[in-house]
Amino acid sequence: MSTELTEAQKLLELRNRIDAIDDDIARLIAARARCAQDVAEVKKANLPDDARILFYRPEREAQVLRKVMEQNQGPLSNEEMARLFREIMSACLALENPVKVAYLGPEGTFTQQAALKHFGHSAVVLPFPTIDDVFREVESGAVNYGVVPVENSTEGVVNHTLDNFLGSNLKICGEVELRIHHNLLVSDVTSVNNISRIYSHSQSLAQCRNWLDAHYPKAERIAVNSNAEAARRLKGEWNAAAIAGSLAAERYELKILSEKIEDQPDNSTRFLIIGTQQVPASGVDKTSIVVSTRNEPGALHNLLEPFHRHGIDLTRVETRPSRSGVWTYVFFIDFSGHVDDDAIRQVLQDLPERVADLKLLGSYPKAVL
Q1: Class at the top of the CATH hierarchy for domain 26-47+54-96
Q2: Are 82 and 68 in contact (CB under 8 A)?
Q3: CB under 8 Å to 14, separation ≥6 — which residues?
Q4: 3-class SS at 9?
Q5: Residue tagged active-site, from 271, 307, 331, 332
Q6: CA dist 125 to 84, 99, 115, 202, 306, Å?
Q7: Bridge partners for 329 per DSSP
Q8: Pick the CATH number of 278-365 from 3.30.70.260, 3.40.50.720, 1.10.1040.50, 3.30.365.10
């Protein structure tokens, strides 16, 4: 008599194992949530009643996610494991105090997607029409943090975000890097064989130029304020399509006619998390500053020499026009390291005598993924 298990028996055994594992996962998540509540009580007990409690700790979350990825043995990817743990941390943090986050809207933008990637779906994310509005909401204390785009790998820097830092005291508390996938979206009334106009943000149209030339060379390309606005326009137009992300398709109940139509497959955008707090070192950090140089020969060399001398890796240098007659050139500089590192401290001590003005925008964890 054969003792070999039938297919049905094997599946039943595997499903029973999955059920047991699920029970363990649920118990452990509940235990983690109770721990998060205990952390909140400890923080409240040791601070004055009128003190503002910082429940969200960017450096702590970055450390947790890095550890999760270092210990990941598959079969799930590091990105998927980080996403799962981000959502667990987001839900636990919401038990302490839900984080309120302003982002460049409307709903369905890549900036909203970046906000959800960084803070998780348990955060309260609120759309605002302009980058100025996002800065203003954070400065007023109406929200805890803001999320704004700062650069795209294809189209370059978002100057309006940089310009806002010149007149703001907000700090950079973190960064998010998001792989940008553009899709051609249509609505339930679209005649797909008669598409004569395509809506999108000007940068998205530029990032899909070659694909559009090949597939819709005669269609009119109409630039609008955001990809989400492009998606929102489709419901009433039978001959139109839009270029936007999957979140916009979901939000506005549209169909993806063609996916990943961007010309550069590695197209990505970097977003900044802005807030009011100084972020402690996480172990893998970046620092951002803005400086103005004097209008004299060798000014740029004098600015960069301390970084070279102390072996500091510059990750980005951007130049912006001055807003006043005093600042002829304004440089936004990102570099590896934290303000508490000895080498960074030495550079920041050397710079003031070499430049007209120096402003520290913040030290923050490098994007985990």
Answers
A1: mainly alpha
A2: yes
A3: none
A4: helix
A5: 271
A6: 19, 8, 7, 25, 40
A7: 293, 321
A8: 3.30.70.260
Q: What is the CA radius of gyration of the chain?
A: 24
- Regarding the domain delimited by 183-266, which CATH topology (the fold level of the hierarchy) does it fall under? D-Maltodextrin-Binding Protein; domain 2 (3.40.190)
Beta-bridge mates of residue 283: none
- DSSP code of 180? -
At the top level of CATH, which class does the domain 98-180 belong to? alpha beta
CB atoms within 10 A of CB 201: 21
Is 271 considered catalytic here? Answer: yes
Residue 239's pLDDT band (cuts 50, 70, 90)? very high
Q: What are the Cα distances from residue 221, in Å, to 205, 208, 213?
A: 7, 11, 11
Tell me the C-alpha distance between 177 and 82, whole Å. 14
- How high is the mean pLDDT of the chain? 91
**Helix/strand/coil percent split, the chain, to 5:** 40, 25, 35
| Shared fold status for 183-266 and 278-365 | no
102 has which bridge partners? 126, 146
Helix, strand counts (H, E) of the chain: 12, 15
Whole-number Å distance between alpha carbons of 204 and 181: 10
Structure tokens at 301: 């060399």
CA dihedral 270, 274, 280, 284 (to 10 degrees): 0
Q: Where are the domains of the chain?
A: 26-47+54-96, 98-180, 183-266, 278-365
* The dihedral sign for the CA sequence 273, 276, 282, 284: positive
Which pair of tokens denotes residue 162? 């940089």
Count of CA atoms in the C-beta half-sphere (13 A) of 204:
28
Whole-model pTM over 0.85: yes
pLDDT digits (tens, 9 = 90+) for 76-117: 999 999 999 999 999 999 987 789 999 998 898 899 999 999
Amino acid identity at 279: V
pLDDT tens sequence across 17-59: 999 999 999 999 999 999 988 888 887 777 666 556 667 899 9
Catalytic site residue from 269, 287, 331, 332: 269
Is 269 one of the catalytic residues? yes
- Helices 58-71 and 78-96 sit at what angle, rounded to 10 degrees? 140
